[in-house]
Each structure stands twice: as C-alpha cells, then as structure tokens.
Write a structure and sequence with these properties.
With 356 residues, the chain is α+β, with helices and mostly antiparallel strands. The protein is 31% helix and 22% strand.
C-alpha cells in the first residue's frame, strides 16, 4: 500500500539516519523561513554585559531552540543568566569551549547561515547512507571530526567518551574493521615514519632519550642494540637502521591499554599519557591513531561477557606491569567515520568544523 514504507523495510538505515533526516527537515524549514539573524561583529560578550547586539543574539539562539521561545519576551540589552545558558548549549552543540562567553569563535559559529547548515546535514546524511545499511546491533563508532568514541548497542548509545585524533597533516583514516583483541600494558613499536621524522631528532638532541622514554633499540634480527654504540650524528631518515620498541610503562605512547583491529593503516584505539589534551575543544594531536579518554571503561564494556575479566581483575593485571593480550569472545565492528553533523544521544543536532 505504501512505496515509502516498502523501501524503508528493504533498506533499514536505522534510528540514527532517521533522526538525521528529521533534523534536515527542521533546518530546511528554518532556511525556507529566512534562516536566523546575523549577529554583528564587536567586542567579546560576557554574562552581565550590556550591548545592543544581545536581542539579535537571543533571536538567533531561539530559532535553533537553544533559547526557549518563551524567554524572548524578557530579553533586553543585558546578557542575562538565561541567555548564558542558551550560549552554553549552543557552544556544546558546536564543539566550542563551553564558557558562556561569546568571543570570535562562538560568533563565527552563530553566523554560519541556515543554508550552510542544511548543506552540512545533507553531506553527512550521504556519509551515513554509505555505512548504515549493513551494521550490527553492537559496535564501536569513532567520529573523527567530532573527537568522540561511542559504544552503540541495540540502537542506543550506551557509552561515550572524548577522543584525540590525527593532526590535519596526519589524518585519521575513514574505514571499517573488526576489533579482535586488546592488550593491557602494551609495548609500542614506533612506525618507521614516526621513528625517523619525530623520534630521531629527539634521539640526537637528548643522550638520555632511551632511558627516559623506556625505548629499546632492535636490529633487523630483533636483537637488542646498545644505543650508545650508534653514531647518531650520521643517521638520517633514509638510513635509519633499527626498530624502536617502547616498553610498557607510564610513558608508553599506547598508555595502559590498546584496542586492536589489524588494518593496513596501522591505526588503532588506545590510551595515552597525554591526558591534559582531552580538556581542549579541538583535539587533533595524534599521528593518526585514536586516543581514548577513558580506556579502562571501554575495556570493561568489551569484556563484560567474560566473567573473569572484571574491572578489579583488569586493575590487577595493570598493576603487574606484564604485557597481556585478551581476545574478545567475538569480533567487534569498529567504524572510523568523519561526520561534521550528527545527533547526540539526547537527539540534539551537533555541528563541527571540517577538520580535514
């Protein structure tokens, strides 16, 4: 009786796609009604300030639901507490520092037109269409542009955390694979590109590099080499003769645990000693891998069907310091995707700058 219903049963793209499609409809309606007013340039606006631009800013925030419609009548030239809450919600939805202060970055995001946001939603719906036809009920999703990692089960986000992703000149790739195991107290074998471009200059500058950073130097046969026996001044990126392997420990680049889905990009999820960087709104710091803010919680999620691997047991293995591989009961699908528009678990529409 309905062509639409028949097609949706044949091509079930799921709750995320439907939610994004509904969001596109709302933003198309906003654009068709003239969009939102632009807020004029000027000095930074802080809560408590008085400025003639504030009523315009309030109307702009009301159009996208960040400020309740009923609050508009009480808005004057003063930056009220209610307006501050609306700014904070807007900042959260756009990946900005959530401080309630309208500086240049927040103002630029407010003044992106409704037509541009419609186009952004269309592009990301297309990206979703590529991958959401054939998807399991339990998977890990990394949104590179959103700097977040999600665990999705039965069409619900059951866990999420912040992530650090590849720098623009070392982009995290977009692909799909299957996680098969995780490693507690991992070693790290530095890829040749990182060893020669990043670590070799440090080795030449710091005689104590190997001891301070916990690295072993291995020859082509895997035998240990004394770093002091190498004339590092003559080593170049084209003549690097050895392999650098970092032992488990607090300085290890993989942190305390890494999540393995062998792939040609050599990109994985892992912990990191660079904890402070998770507090930044833009988190493109890695050489391509995905650094996870709360990796032990993710490990507990992945191992919750193995009774012996409780969180206490994971902590005990960590304390022992021995490299330990734990295989998953069944492979876990992992999606590394690049979405600059998406829905959060509360259904709110989020937008992000095009990092790459």
């Amino acid at each position: 009786p309905s062509l639409r219903q028949n097609l949706e049963s044949v091509i079930p793209r799921g709750w995320f796609y439907r939610g994004m499609r509904e969001a596109l409809g709302r933003y198309r309606a906003i654009a068709a009604n003239g969009g939102w007013p632009a807020v004029a340039d000027g000095p930074t606006l802080r809560p408590g300030d008085t400025d003639s631009r504030i009523p315009t800013m309030a109307r702009r925030l009301a159009v996208t639901g960040d400020l309740p419609d009923g609050a508009l009548a009480a808005i004057d030239d003063r930056f009220s507490r209610e307006l501050e809450q609306a700014v904070r919600q807007f900042q959260s939805r756009h990946g900005l520092d959530v401080d309630g202060i309208v500086g240049p970055g927040t103002l630029r995001a407010m003044n992106v037109s409704a037509a541009q946001r419609v186009r952004q939603l269309e592009i990301n719906l297309e990206r979703a269409r590529w991958v959401l036809d054939d998807i399991s009920d339990y998977f890990i999703l990394v949104n590179i542009a959103g700097f977040r990692v999600y665990v999705v089960r039965d069409q619900e986000i059951v866990w999420q955390t912040r992530a650090q992703v590849g720098r623009p000149y070392r982009k995290s790739p977009v692909f799909r694979d299957e996680m098969k195991y995780l490693v507690i107290n991992p070693t790290w074998t530095a890829p040749y590109s990182i060893a020669t471009r990043d670590l070799l200059p440090q080795i030449k500058q710091d005689p104590g590099f190997f001891e301070a950073r916990g690295f072993d130097l291995l020859d082509r046969n895997g035998s240990r080499v004394d770093p002091a026996s190498v004339d590092w001044s003559g080593v170049t990126t084209n003549s690097f003769p050895s392999t650098l392997v970092q032992r488990p420990g607090p300085a290890n680049a993989m942190g305390r645990v890494k999540f393995m889905f062998p792939n040609p990009h050599a990109v994985y999820l892992h912990d990191t000693p660079s904890r402070a960087k998770f507090g930044r709104s833009q988190r493109a710091f890695s050489a391509g891998c995905i650094r996870v803010e709360r990796p032990l919680e993710l490990a507990a999620h992945l191992l919750d069907d193995q009774p012996t691997w409780t969180r206490d047991h994971i902590d005990q293995v960590l304390a022992g310091g021995k490299r330990t591989t734990v295989r998953l009961t069944s492979p876990m699908p992992v999606f590394l995707l690049y979405w600059t528009a998406y829905l959060d678990d509360d259904g709110s529409v989020h937008f992000r700058p095009d990092l790459y």
